[in-house]
Amino acid sequence: MRIVESNGLVALCDGAGRQETVSLALTGELAEGEYVLVHLGTALRSMSEEEAADISNAISAVAAAVEGRDYEHLIQDLVDREPALPPGLHPDDDLPGQAG
Amino acid sequence: MTNTPATSCSYDLVITQADEGAECSVVRRGPANALAVTGGRSCDEGIRLAGLLFPICPRAHMAAGLSAMEAAAGVMLSSEQAAAREAAVLAEAAASSLWRAGFTWPQLMGLAPDPGLVRSGRQASDGILAALFSENWARPGGAEIVFRANDARAALNVLTECAEQLETASAEIVSAADRTFDQAFTVLPALGNQLLFADTAPDRISAEETPRSQARAAQTAGTLSDWFAAQAAATRALTGQLADALDRIAPAPAANFPSDATGTGMGIATTARGRLRHIIDLDHGRIARWTSTAPTDWNFALNGPAANYAAQLARDEFDRIAPWLIAALDPCSPCRIVPAGSAAHA
Question: What is the CA radius of gyration of chain A?
Fold first, then answer.
């Protein structure tokens, strides 16, 4: 989901055609425009716009399949594309240390 | 309002009260099989999709899928490759366990959670994955291992310290908690004194046609104190298994995975909530059918443990205890209790 309003550790997020108030307690404060993975009202982590789009498209594909609509266009770009480690996890990056 | 990003499932426990007791059935909403969208795709594409469809615990789902594909193709991983994959999954499970016990449960109790503990655990889990493989780890047949042992063990130490902190925090939470929570937990021994975890089904037909839980006594929880102690111990145990897996890792080549494999295979992976099972049919290298059974699927199945146990609750205690029973079974999807015939149910 995309953060449309951020107020400390609470944010209004937009995604999947609806808005939701989300806790940012696990991620820390994030700015408007950033993308977060939300589970049961809590943002688990931030993510890139590309990853957010990939997840959204995959879930939309499931919804389309359930409704009997075509979904191939939503996940067609997976062909010949290799998954990659998310930013910050490449072997050349520094190992994350203990926080907080 | 809640949001479940993976498969958008939710569960209603529909309660019918009668003089002789309650009856409880389960209504599950959501796609019957989100992985159906992988049909006709290559294994690499399917694995990529599985990670996107289950972003809460992607490593476990991808690893179970990979194991199922390898079983279907008759491919055997080297012990080193298997250990590296196992370590990646265990690290995710340990971080998820910290999230549940250090964040979710205190929130449920109205107490202050410890997000720093969860963040540290997650960073360490990510660090372990980064220390195992050079690039994409989720390949059928295994991936190139570039084991940076010192980095992996440093991250393991962080996870272990987090688990130790969880034990301390749990004790503090218990001491601060309202004693009524203990009363809520005393119902669990009366219901069998077991927490239920999904386990491997004995055969495919029974798993698909009659979802049921093979309950096993994993922990005993008579009071809230026992419960938190068990959660902390489970997290520590995961870090212990992770340390063992790291000891078995060494550079090893990936196995050759045939591009035209045909067959059926099953894969199992560990998650914080229990075991996860995937079954895949391959047809000339393409995914013909892919199904998964997660712990929540078992525990909240029709006539599953949640429904059976909820129906055993005394009528005058139901409203107070049932939400905690659900929390104890720890669904990874939204779950609510709905009186039969209510507007919400209708």
Answer: 16
Task: Give the one of B48, B122, B151 whose C-beta lies nearest to A83's C-beta.
Answer: B48
- Coil, strand or helix at B25: strand
**Helix, strand and coil in chain A, % to nearest 5:** 25, 30, 45
pTM of the model: 0.82
Residues of A with CB below 8 A from B154's CB?
A: 95
Tell me the pLDDT tens digit for each residue of A9-64. 999 999 878 899 999 989 999 999 999 999 888 899 999 999 999 999 998 888 88
Q: Show the tokens assigned to A43.
A: 């943002």
Q: Which residues of A touch B52 (CB under 8 A)?
A: 54-55, 57-59
Q: List CB contacts (< 8 A) between A38 and chain B.
A: 3, 5
Q: Can you give the length of chain A in residues?
A: 100
Contact B66, B40 (CB under 8 A): no
Token pair listed for B67: 């194991």
Q: State CA A2 to chain mean position distance.
A: 8
Predicted complex ipTM: 0.77
Burial A4-15 (b: 16+ CB within 10 A, else e): eebeebebbbeb
Residues 40-69 of B with CB under 8 A from A: 41, 44-45, 47-49, 51-53, 55-56
Residue recorded with tokens 């996107």: B52
How close, in Å, is residue A71 to chain B by CA atoms? 8
B150 touches chain A (CB under 8 A): no
CA distance, residue B132 to nearest chain A CA (Å): 9
Contact B26, B333 (CB under 8 A): no
Q: Report d(CA B342, CA B144) in Å as an integer.
A: 56
